[in-house]
Amino acid sequence: MLRSQVMAPPSPPLERYRALLAATATATATAAPARLREPGGGDGEGALPGELELQAAWFAGGFGREFTTTDGRRARVVQFGHWNRSAGPDFVDAVVEIDGEARRGAIEMDLSARGWEAHGHADNPAYDRVALHLFFEPAAGARFFTRTASHREVPQVLLDARTLGDAPRLAEAEARAGRCSAPLAGMPDSDLESLLDGAARQRAARKGAAFTAYAEAHGRDRALFAGVAEALGYRRNRLPMRVLAGRLNLKEVRAKGGEGLLFGAAGFLDEPSYDDAPPETRDYLRSLWESWWKRRDDFDPSRAPHWTFSGSRPSNHPHRRLAALALFAARWPEWRELCWAQPFDARGVRSFAASLTHPYWDRHHTLKSKVAPRPEALVGSARATDLLANIVLPARLASQPELWPVYRQLPAGLGNQKLRRATARLFGRDADRARTLLKRLYAQQALLQIYADFCLADESDCEDCPFPEQLAQWGQ
Ligand code: SF4
User: Fold this and answer.
1) Do 348 and 366 fall into the same domain?
2) Is the CB of 427 under 6 A from ligand 1?
3) Ligand 1 in contact with 466 (CB < 6 A)?
4) Alpha carbon of 239 to ligand 1 centroid (Å)
5) Do 401 and 11 form a contact (C-beta atoms < 8 A)?
6) What is the pLDDT of residues 386-418, one digit of tens each?
7) In angstroms, rounded to a whole number, what is the distance separating the alpha carbons of residues 450 and 446?
8) Which helix (DSSP H) or strand (DSSP E) does residue 441 occupy?
9) Rounded distance between C-alpha atoms, residue 342 and residue 34, angstroms
10) Which residues of the chain have pLDDT under 70?
11) Ligand 1 pocket member 455 (CB < 6 A)
12) Are residues 318 and 370 part of one domain?
Protein backbone atom coordinates (compact mmCIF):
# COMPACT_ATOMS: atom_id res chain seq x y z
CA MET A 1 0.00 0.00 0.00
CA LEU A 2 1.54 3.29 -1.06
CA ARG A 3 1.01 6.10 1.40
CA SER A 4 -1.31 7.84 -1.04
CA GLN A 5 -3.59 4.81 -1.28
CA VAL A 6 -6.42 3.93 1.07
CA MET A 7 -6.37 0.38 2.41
CA ALA A 8 -9.64 -1.47 1.86
CA PRO A 9 -11.10 -3.44 4.81
CA PRO A 10 -10.69 -7.24 4.54
CA SER A 11 -13.64 -9.18 3.08
CA PRO A 12 -15.52 -11.66 5.37
CA PRO A 13 -13.89 -14.80 3.78
CA LEU A 14 -10.46 -13.20 4.21
CA GLU A 15 -11.18 -12.28 7.83
CA ARG A 16 -12.27 -15.84 8.54
CA TYR A 17 -9.22 -17.33 6.85
CA ARG A 18 -7.01 -15.06 8.94
CA ALA A 19 -8.82 -16.27 12.04
CA LEU A 20 -7.92 -19.83 11.04
CA LEU A 21 -4.30 -18.79 10.76
CA ALA A 22 -4.38 -16.99 14.09
CA ALA A 23 -5.42 -20.26 15.74
CA THR A 24 -2.17 -21.85 14.55
CA ALA A 25 -0.01 -18.91 15.59
CA THR A 26 0.68 -20.27 19.07
CA ALA A 27 2.05 -23.51 17.67
CA THR A 28 4.21 -21.60 15.21
CA ALA A 29 5.54 -19.26 17.88
CA THR A 30 6.71 -22.14 20.04
CA ALA A 31 8.33 -23.95 17.13
CA ALA A 32 12.08 -24.45 17.18
CA PRO A 33 13.94 -21.67 15.37
CA ALA A 34 14.63 -22.58 11.78
CA ARG A 35 18.16 -22.93 10.50
CA LEU A 36 19.67 -20.55 8.02
CA ARG A 37 20.76 -22.00 4.74
CA GLU A 38 24.35 -21.46 3.72
CA PRO A 39 24.91 -19.99 0.26
CA GLY A 40 24.61 -22.75 -2.28
CA GLY A 41 23.02 -25.03 0.30
CA GLY A 42 20.05 -27.26 -0.40
CA ASP A 43 16.42 -26.76 0.41
CA GLY A 44 16.55 -29.03 3.40
CA GLU A 45 13.83 -29.41 5.96
CA GLY A 46 13.46 -26.35 8.14
CA ALA A 47 15.88 -24.31 6.07
CA LEU A 48 15.27 -20.60 5.65
CA PRO A 49 16.42 -18.58 2.64
CA GLY A 50 20.08 -18.37 1.63
CA GLU A 51 22.09 -15.14 1.74
CA LEU A 52 21.16 -13.87 -1.72
CA GLU A 53 17.46 -14.45 -1.07
CA LEU A 54 17.80 -12.58 2.22
CA GLN A 55 19.52 -9.70 0.44
CA ALA A 56 16.67 -9.68 -2.08
CA ALA A 57 14.12 -9.60 0.74
CA TRP A 58 15.97 -6.74 2.47
CA PHE A 59 16.23 -4.71 -0.74
CA ALA A 60 12.52 -5.26 -1.35
CA GLY A 61 11.72 -3.75 2.07
CA GLY A 62 10.58 -7.16 3.33
CA PHE A 63 12.12 -6.64 6.77
CA GLY A 64 10.63 -3.15 7.13
CA ARG A 65 12.72 -0.04 7.69
CA GLU A 66 12.65 0.56 11.46
CA PHE A 67 14.84 -1.47 13.78
CA THR A 68 16.54 -1.46 17.17
CA THR A 69 20.31 -1.88 17.10
CA THR A 70 21.97 -4.49 19.30
CA ASP A 71 22.94 -1.70 21.73
CA GLY A 72 19.37 -0.37 21.96
CA ARG A 73 19.41 2.59 19.55
CA ARG A 74 16.67 3.38 17.04
CA ALA A 75 17.71 2.67 13.45
CA ARG A 76 15.63 3.79 10.50
CA VAL A 77 16.46 3.18 6.85
CA VAL A 78 15.70 6.42 5.04
CA GLN A 79 17.03 5.22 1.68
CA PHE A 80 17.83 1.61 0.82
CA GLY A 81 20.49 2.79 -1.67
CA HIS A 82 21.75 0.63 -4.53
CA TRP A 83 22.28 -3.10 -4.57
CA ASN A 84 26.01 -3.22 -5.22
CA ARG A 85 27.14 -4.83 -8.48
CA SER A 86 30.88 -4.35 -8.00
CA ALA A 87 33.28 -5.27 -5.18
CA GLY A 88 32.57 -4.00 -1.65
CA PRO A 89 29.59 -3.90 0.70
CA ASP A 90 26.25 -5.39 -0.37
CA PHE A 91 24.33 -2.09 -0.58
CA VAL A 92 25.82 1.33 -1.26
CA ASP A 93 24.59 4.95 -1.12
CA ALA A 94 22.07 4.19 1.59
CA VAL A 95 20.91 6.66 4.24
CA VAL A 96 20.33 5.37 7.76
CA GLU A 97 19.18 7.35 10.78
CA ILE A 98 20.61 6.23 14.12
CA ASP A 99 18.71 7.84 17.00
CA GLY A 100 17.57 10.52 14.56
CA GLU A 101 21.04 11.31 13.19
CA ALA A 102 21.29 10.67 9.43
CA ARG A 103 24.32 8.76 8.13
CA ARG A 104 24.99 8.17 4.44
CA GLY A 105 26.97 5.06 3.67
CA ALA A 106 26.81 1.38 2.87
CA ILE A 107 24.91 -1.54 4.39
CA GLU A 108 26.51 -4.96 4.77
CA MET A 109 24.58 -8.16 5.36
CA ASP A 110 26.11 -11.38 6.72
CA LEU A 111 24.41 -14.54 7.85
CA SER A 112 26.24 -14.41 11.17
CA ALA A 113 27.75 -11.48 13.10
CA ARG A 114 31.23 -12.94 12.85
CA GLY A 115 30.94 -13.01 9.04
CA TRP A 116 32.28 -9.44 9.22
CA GLU A 117 35.66 -10.70 10.39
CA ALA A 118 35.56 -14.05 8.63
CA HIS A 119 35.14 -12.29 5.26
CA GLY A 120 37.93 -9.80 6.02
CA HIS A 121 35.72 -6.68 6.12
CA ALA A 122 37.36 -5.49 9.36
CA ASP A 123 40.66 -4.88 7.54
CA ASN A 124 39.25 -3.81 4.19
CA PRO A 125 39.08 0.00 3.67
CA ALA A 126 36.29 -0.59 1.10
CA TYR A 127 34.04 -1.24 4.14
CA ASP A 128 35.04 1.95 5.98
CA ARG A 129 31.80 3.68 5.00
CA VAL A 130 29.47 0.95 6.21
CA ALA A 131 26.66 2.59 8.19
CA LEU A 132 24.81 -0.55 9.26
CA HIS A 133 25.81 -4.19 9.74
CA LEU A 134 22.95 -6.68 9.41
CA PHE A 135 23.07 -10.33 10.45
CA PHE A 136 20.78 -13.20 11.41
CA GLU A 137 22.85 -15.06 13.98
CA PRO A 138 24.51 -13.25 16.88
CA ALA A 139 28.07 -14.14 17.83
CA ALA A 140 28.29 -16.90 20.39
CA GLY A 141 29.89 -15.96 23.73
CA ALA A 142 31.10 -12.40 24.38
CA ARG A 143 29.44 -9.54 22.53
CA PHE A 144 30.90 -8.96 19.08
CA PHE A 145 31.57 -5.38 17.93
CA THR A 146 31.62 -4.56 14.23
CA ARG A 147 34.66 -2.35 13.60
CA THR A 148 35.99 -0.90 10.34
CA ALA A 149 39.65 -0.76 9.26
CA SER A 150 39.71 2.80 10.65
CA HIS A 151 38.45 1.48 14.03
CA ARG A 152 34.98 2.99 13.82
CA GLU A 153 32.23 1.00 15.45
CA VAL A 154 29.34 0.16 13.09
CA PRO A 155 25.78 -0.11 14.46
CA GLN A 156 24.49 -3.67 14.27
CA VAL A 157 20.97 -4.97 13.63
CA LEU A 158 20.00 -8.56 14.30
CA LEU A 159 17.31 -9.59 11.80
CA ASP A 160 14.92 -12.51 12.12
CA ALA A 161 14.44 -14.34 8.82
CA ARG A 162 11.24 -15.88 10.14
CA THR A 163 9.53 -12.49 9.99
CA LEU A 164 9.52 -12.84 6.22
CA GLY A 165 6.52 -15.07 6.71
CA ASP A 166 7.14 -17.02 3.53
CA ALA A 167 9.56 -19.31 5.29
CA PRO A 168 7.76 -22.60 5.82
CA ARG A 169 9.35 -25.03 8.23
CA LEU A 170 9.22 -27.92 5.75
CA ALA A 171 10.44 -27.79 2.18
CA GLU A 172 7.61 -30.07 1.03
CA ALA A 173 4.96 -32.43 2.38
CA GLU A 174 4.20 -35.96 1.24
CA ALA A 175 1.75 -36.27 -1.68
CA ARG A 176 -0.98 -38.34 -0.01
CA ALA A 177 -4.43 -37.65 1.40
CA GLY A 178 -4.23 -35.71 4.66
CA ARG A 179 -6.49 -35.80 7.71
CA CYS A 180 -8.43 -32.79 6.40
CA SER A 181 -9.42 -34.52 3.16
CA ALA A 182 -12.40 -36.21 4.88
CA PRO A 183 -13.98 -33.04 6.34
CA LEU A 184 -13.25 -31.21 3.08
CA ALA A 185 -15.03 -33.93 1.11
CA GLY A 186 -18.10 -33.47 3.33
CA MET A 187 -18.09 -29.69 3.15
CA PRO A 188 -21.05 -28.07 1.37
CA ASP A 189 -20.09 -26.40 -1.92
CA SER A 190 -20.85 -22.90 -0.63
CA ASP A 191 -18.58 -23.34 2.41
CA LEU A 192 -15.76 -24.82 0.38
CA GLU A 193 -16.16 -21.99 -2.08
CA SER A 194 -15.83 -19.32 0.61
CA LEU A 195 -12.86 -21.13 2.22
CA LEU A 196 -11.00 -21.13 -1.08
CA ASP A 197 -12.01 -17.53 -1.69
CA GLY A 198 -10.58 -16.52 1.71
CA ALA A 199 -7.32 -18.41 1.18
CA ALA A 200 -6.87 -16.99 -2.33
CA ARG A 201 -7.53 -13.47 -1.04
CA GLN A 202 -4.92 -14.05 1.66
CA ARG A 203 -2.36 -15.03 -0.97
CA ALA A 204 -3.15 -12.02 -3.14
CA ALA A 205 -3.04 -9.71 -0.10
CA ARG A 206 0.41 -10.94 0.85
CA LYS A 207 1.68 -10.42 -2.68
CA GLY A 208 0.11 -6.97 -2.70
CA ALA A 209 1.80 -6.10 0.60
CA ALA A 210 5.18 -7.27 -0.76
CA PHE A 211 4.67 -5.11 -3.86
CA THR A 212 3.83 -2.11 -1.70
CA ALA A 213 6.90 -2.57 0.50
CA TYR A 214 9.13 -2.65 -2.61
CA ALA A 215 7.34 0.36 -4.08
CA GLU A 216 7.79 2.34 -0.86
CA ALA A 217 11.50 1.50 -0.85
CA HIS A 218 12.26 2.15 -4.54
CA GLY A 219 9.19 3.52 -6.30
CA ARG A 220 6.31 1.85 -8.10
CA ASP A 221 8.07 1.48 -11.46
CA ARG A 222 10.98 -0.45 -10.00
CA ALA A 223 8.62 -2.61 -7.96
CA LEU A 224 6.70 -3.47 -11.13
CA PHE A 225 9.93 -4.11 -13.04
CA ALA A 226 11.22 -6.46 -10.31
CA GLY A 227 7.85 -8.22 -10.21
CA VAL A 228 7.79 -8.72 -13.99
CA ALA A 229 11.37 -10.02 -13.88
CA GLU A 230 10.52 -12.49 -11.14
CA ALA A 231 7.41 -13.74 -12.92
CA LEU A 232 9.40 -14.19 -16.14
CA GLY A 233 11.95 -16.23 -14.22
CA TYR A 234 9.27 -18.86 -13.89
CA ARG A 235 9.94 -21.38 -11.11
CA ARG A 236 13.64 -22.03 -11.36
CA ASN A 237 15.02 -18.59 -12.12
CA ARG A 238 12.85 -16.27 -10.06
CA LEU A 239 15.69 -15.26 -7.78
CA PRO A 240 18.36 -14.48 -10.42
CA MET A 241 15.80 -12.46 -12.40
CA ARG A 242 14.83 -10.53 -9.28
CA VAL A 243 18.48 -9.93 -8.36
CA LEU A 244 19.22 -8.63 -11.83
CA ALA A 245 16.20 -6.31 -11.82
CA GLY A 246 17.28 -5.01 -8.40
CA ARG A 247 20.91 -4.43 -9.34
CA LEU A 248 20.11 -2.67 -12.62
CA ASN A 249 18.23 0.55 -12.80
CA LEU A 250 15.11 0.44 -15.00
CA LYS A 251 16.27 3.73 -16.56
CA GLU A 252 19.57 2.26 -17.74
CA VAL A 253 17.84 -0.88 -19.05
CA ARG A 254 15.52 1.39 -21.03
CA ALA A 255 18.38 3.45 -22.42
CA LYS A 256 20.10 2.65 -25.72
CA GLY A 257 22.07 -0.58 -25.31
CA GLY A 258 19.94 -1.72 -22.36
CA GLU A 259 19.49 -5.19 -23.80
CA GLY A 260 23.28 -5.65 -23.95
CA LEU A 261 23.54 -4.43 -20.37
CA LEU A 262 20.97 -6.99 -19.22
CA PHE A 263 22.66 -9.88 -21.00
CA GLY A 264 26.12 -8.79 -19.86
CA ALA A 265 25.14 -8.30 -16.20
CA ALA A 266 23.45 -11.69 -16.33
CA GLY A 267 26.80 -13.24 -17.26
CA PHE A 268 25.55 -14.42 -20.67
CA LEU A 269 28.09 -12.52 -22.81
CA ASP A 270 31.35 -14.24 -22.10
CA GLU A 271 33.85 -14.98 -24.89
CA PRO A 272 33.01 -18.70 -25.27
CA SER A 273 29.38 -17.90 -26.00
CA TYR A 274 30.53 -15.86 -29.01
CA ASP A 275 32.92 -18.55 -30.26
CA ASP A 276 30.29 -21.27 -29.87
CA ALA A 277 27.49 -19.29 -31.48
CA PRO A 278 26.08 -20.20 -34.89
CA PRO A 279 27.04 -17.68 -37.60
CA GLU A 280 23.55 -16.12 -37.73
CA THR A 281 23.76 -15.41 -34.00
CA ARG A 282 27.05 -13.57 -34.13
CA ASP A 283 25.55 -10.36 -35.53
CA TYR A 284 23.10 -10.25 -32.66
CA LEU A 285 25.85 -10.99 -30.11
CA ARG A 286 27.99 -8.26 -31.64
CA SER A 287 25.17 -5.74 -31.18
CA LEU A 288 24.87 -6.74 -27.49
CA TRP A 289 28.63 -6.51 -26.97
CA GLU A 290 28.75 -3.03 -28.49
CA SER A 291 27.01 -1.63 -25.43
CA TRP A 292 28.24 -4.14 -22.86
CA TRP A 293 31.99 -3.68 -23.30
CA LYS A 294 31.69 -0.02 -22.21
CA ARG A 295 29.96 -1.02 -18.96
CA ARG A 296 31.45 -4.37 -18.03
CA ASP A 297 34.11 -2.93 -15.67
CA ASP A 298 31.29 -1.60 -13.44
CA PHE A 299 30.23 -5.20 -12.72
CA ASP A 300 31.95 -7.74 -10.52
CA PRO A 301 31.59 -11.07 -12.38
CA SER A 302 31.44 -12.91 -9.05
CA ARG A 303 28.15 -11.10 -8.37
CA ALA A 304 26.52 -12.38 -11.58
CA PRO A 305 23.38 -14.33 -10.66
CA HIS A 306 23.42 -18.13 -10.72
CA TRP A 307 21.04 -19.52 -13.30
CA THR A 308 19.35 -22.87 -13.58
CA PHE A 309 19.46 -24.03 -17.17
CA SER A 310 18.02 -27.49 -16.71
CA GLY A 311 14.49 -28.71 -16.09
CA SER A 312 12.53 -26.24 -18.21
CA ARG A 313 11.27 -26.30 -21.77
CA PRO A 314 13.69 -24.86 -24.38
CA SER A 315 11.31 -21.95 -24.99
CA ASN A 316 11.61 -21.04 -21.28
CA HIS A 317 15.42 -20.88 -21.35
CA PRO A 318 16.77 -17.97 -19.22
CA HIS A 319 18.15 -16.27 -22.36
CA ARG A 320 14.60 -15.95 -23.73
CA ARG A 321 13.20 -14.86 -20.37
CA LEU A 322 15.77 -12.07 -20.24
CA ALA A 323 14.96 -11.01 -23.79
CA ALA A 324 11.31 -10.76 -22.77
CA LEU A 325 12.28 -8.54 -19.82
CA ALA A 326 14.25 -6.28 -22.20
CA LEU A 327 11.10 -5.96 -24.34
CA PHE A 328 8.95 -4.97 -21.35
CA ALA A 329 11.57 -2.34 -20.46
CA ALA A 330 11.68 -1.03 -24.02
CA ARG A 331 7.88 -0.51 -24.07
CA TRP A 332 7.63 0.48 -20.41
CA PRO A 333 5.36 3.57 -20.67
CA GLU A 334 2.75 1.55 -22.56
CA TRP A 335 2.99 -1.40 -20.15
CA ARG A 336 2.83 0.83 -17.06
CA GLU A 337 -0.23 2.62 -18.38
CA LEU A 338 -2.03 -0.68 -18.96
CA CYS A 339 -1.16 -1.94 -15.47
CA TRP A 340 -2.57 1.14 -13.73
CA ALA A 341 -5.38 1.90 -16.18
CA GLN A 342 -8.80 2.99 -14.85
CA PRO A 343 -10.96 1.10 -15.56
CA PHE A 344 -8.72 -1.94 -15.47
CA ASP A 345 -8.54 -4.02 -18.64
CA ALA A 346 -7.15 -7.49 -17.88
CA ARG A 347 -7.48 -8.53 -21.51
CA GLY A 348 -5.39 -5.51 -22.57
CA VAL A 349 -2.62 -6.50 -20.14
CA ARG A 350 -2.57 -10.05 -21.47
CA SER A 351 -2.62 -9.03 -25.13
CA PHE A 352 0.23 -6.60 -24.56
CA ALA A 353 2.37 -9.37 -23.07
CA ALA A 354 1.44 -11.76 -25.88
CA SER A 355 2.25 -9.13 -28.52
CA LEU A 356 5.93 -8.84 -27.58
CA THR A 357 8.14 -9.94 -30.45
CA HIS A 358 11.86 -9.87 -31.09
CA PRO A 359 13.63 -10.31 -34.44
CA TYR A 360 16.13 -12.76 -32.96
CA TRP A 361 14.34 -14.38 -30.03
CA ASP A 362 11.13 -15.22 -31.85
CA ARG A 363 13.07 -18.02 -33.53
CA HIS A 364 15.85 -18.89 -31.09
CA HIS A 365 15.84 -20.68 -27.76
CA THR A 366 19.36 -19.76 -26.62
CA LEU A 367 22.41 -17.85 -27.79
CA LYS A 368 23.81 -21.14 -29.03
CA SER A 369 20.77 -22.76 -30.60
CA LYS A 370 19.94 -23.04 -34.28
CA VAL A 371 17.00 -21.20 -35.83
CA ALA A 372 13.71 -22.75 -34.70
CA PRO A 373 11.47 -24.06 -37.53
CA ARG A 374 8.61 -21.72 -36.56
CA PRO A 375 8.28 -18.58 -34.40
CA GLU A 376 7.41 -19.06 -30.72
CA ALA A 377 5.79 -16.51 -28.43
CA LEU A 378 8.20 -14.95 -25.94
CA VAL A 379 5.45 -14.53 -23.37
CA GLY A 380 2.74 -17.16 -23.73
CA SER A 381 -0.75 -16.87 -22.34
CA ALA A 382 0.14 -18.84 -19.17
CA ARG A 383 2.96 -16.41 -18.35
CA ALA A 384 0.71 -13.43 -19.11
CA THR A 385 -1.87 -14.78 -16.66
CA ASP A 386 0.92 -15.32 -14.14
CA LEU A 387 1.88 -11.64 -14.44
CA LEU A 388 -1.71 -10.63 -13.76
CA ALA A 389 -2.15 -13.02 -10.84
CA ASN A 390 1.16 -12.45 -9.10
CA ILE A 391 1.97 -8.82 -9.71
CA VAL A 392 -0.53 -6.57 -11.38
CA LEU A 393 -3.78 -7.60 -9.69
CA PRO A 394 -2.33 -8.07 -6.16
CA ALA A 395 -0.80 -4.59 -6.44
CA ARG A 396 -4.17 -3.11 -7.38
CA LEU A 397 -6.42 -5.14 -5.10
CA ALA A 398 -4.99 -3.57 -1.95
CA SER A 399 -6.84 -0.36 -2.73
CA GLN A 400 -9.41 -1.63 -5.22
CA PRO A 401 -11.08 -4.75 -3.79
CA GLU A 402 -13.81 -4.34 -6.41
CA LEU A 403 -11.30 -5.91 -8.85
CA TRP A 404 -11.57 -9.25 -7.04
CA PRO A 405 -14.08 -10.68 -9.59
CA VAL A 406 -11.46 -10.04 -12.29
CA TYR A 407 -8.98 -12.14 -10.30
CA ARG A 408 -11.62 -14.83 -9.74
CA GLN A 409 -12.19 -15.14 -13.48
CA LEU A 410 -8.55 -15.79 -14.37
CA PRO A 411 -8.20 -19.19 -16.06
CA ALA A 412 -6.15 -21.88 -14.31
CA GLY A 413 -2.40 -21.63 -14.73
CA LEU A 414 -0.10 -24.51 -15.54
CA GLY A 415 0.08 -27.01 -12.70
CA ASN A 416 3.29 -27.73 -10.85
CA GLN A 417 4.57 -30.24 -8.38
CA LYS A 418 3.60 -28.13 -5.37
CA LEU A 419 0.03 -27.82 -6.61
CA ARG A 420 -0.17 -31.56 -7.25
CA ARG A 421 1.00 -32.27 -3.70
CA ALA A 422 -1.47 -29.78 -2.24
CA THR A 423 -4.33 -31.30 -4.26
CA ALA A 424 -3.42 -34.83 -3.24
CA ARG A 425 -3.32 -33.86 0.45
CA LEU A 426 -6.50 -31.80 0.57
CA PHE A 427 -8.64 -33.56 -2.04
CA GLY A 428 -7.14 -37.04 -2.07
CA ARG A 429 -10.59 -38.57 -1.58
CA ASP A 430 -12.47 -36.22 -3.84
CA ALA A 431 -10.54 -36.00 -7.12
CA ASP A 432 -13.61 -35.07 -9.21
CA ARG A 433 -14.41 -32.08 -7.09
CA ALA A 434 -10.77 -30.97 -7.19
CA ARG A 435 -10.76 -31.19 -10.99
CA THR A 436 -13.81 -28.94 -11.25
CA LEU A 437 -12.52 -26.39 -8.76
CA LEU A 438 -9.03 -26.20 -10.17
CA LYS A 439 -10.25 -24.87 -13.50
CA ARG A 440 -9.85 -21.40 -11.98
CA LEU A 441 -6.56 -19.85 -10.96
CA TYR A 442 -7.94 -18.48 -7.69
CA ALA A 443 -8.67 -22.05 -6.49
CA GLN A 444 -5.14 -23.14 -7.39
CA GLN A 445 -3.77 -20.18 -5.45
CA ALA A 446 -6.02 -21.01 -2.51
CA LEU A 447 -4.75 -24.58 -2.34
CA LEU A 448 -1.16 -23.41 -2.48
CA GLN A 449 -1.86 -20.99 0.37
CA ILE A 450 -3.45 -23.64 2.59
CA TYR A 451 -0.58 -26.01 1.78
CA ALA A 452 1.97 -23.36 2.78
CA ASP A 453 0.11 -22.22 5.88
CA PHE A 454 -0.80 -25.62 7.29
CA CYS A 455 0.92 -28.56 5.56
CA LEU A 456 4.37 -26.99 5.52
CA ALA A 457 4.00 -25.87 9.12
CA ASP A 458 2.97 -29.33 10.33
CA GLU A 459 5.55 -31.75 11.68
CA SER A 460 3.12 -34.28 13.14
CA ASP A 461 1.99 -36.14 10.01
CA CYS A 462 -1.35 -34.24 10.22
CA GLU A 463 -1.94 -35.43 13.80
CA ASP A 464 -1.60 -32.01 15.49
CA CYS A 465 -2.70 -29.87 12.53
CA PRO A 466 -5.64 -27.71 13.66
CA PHE A 467 -7.04 -27.28 10.14
CA PRO A 468 -9.43 -30.30 10.08
CA GLU A 469 -11.14 -29.30 13.36
CA GLN A 470 -11.37 -25.66 12.32
CA LEU A 471 -13.10 -26.66 9.10
CA ALA A 472 -16.07 -27.83 11.14
CA GLN A 473 -16.63 -24.24 12.29
CA TRP A 474 -16.15 -22.62 8.89
CA GLY A 475 -19.81 -22.65 7.89
CA GLN A 476 -21.16 -21.60 11.30
S1 SF4 B 1 -1.18 -30.95 7.50
FE2 SF4 B 1 -3.22 -30.18 7.99
S3 SF4 B 1 -3.89 -29.09 6.14
FE4 SF4 B 1 -2.15 -30.39 5.55
S5 SF4 B 1 -3.06 -32.31 4.82
FE6 SF4 B 1 -2.62 -32.58 7.01
S7 SF4 B 1 -4.50 -31.99 8.05
FE8 SF4 B 1 -4.64 -31.20 5.96
Assistant:
1) yes
2) no
3) no
4) 29
5) yes
6) 999 999 999 999 889 999 999 999 998 777 888
7) 6
8) helix 441-453
9) 44
10) 1-10, 24-49, 165-169, 272
11) yes
12) yes
